[in-house]
Amino acid sequence: MWSPCSPKCPEQCIAEGDPIYIIDAGKCTDCAACAGVCPTASCVPA
Q: Which residue ranges make up each domain of the chain?
């Protein structure tokens, strides 16, 4: 499964899970680069 969100992450903290993608909160800097391209509006900065 491919997601347009993952390549946009400068920290590379989005990984494919089953059945959803997982964001590593320890690596995420809340830059919101993924939020602008996520087709399901699932990437929401904290």
A: 1-38
Residue 41 pLDDT greater than 70, yes or no: yes
Query: How much helix, strand and coil, in percent to the nearest 5, is found in the chain?
Result: 5, 15, 80
Helix (H, G, I), strand (E, B) or coil at 40: coil
* Domain covering 1-38, topology: Alpha-Beta Plaits (3.30.70)
Cα-only R_g, the chain: 9
What are the pLDDT digits (tens) for 13-22? 988 888 888 8
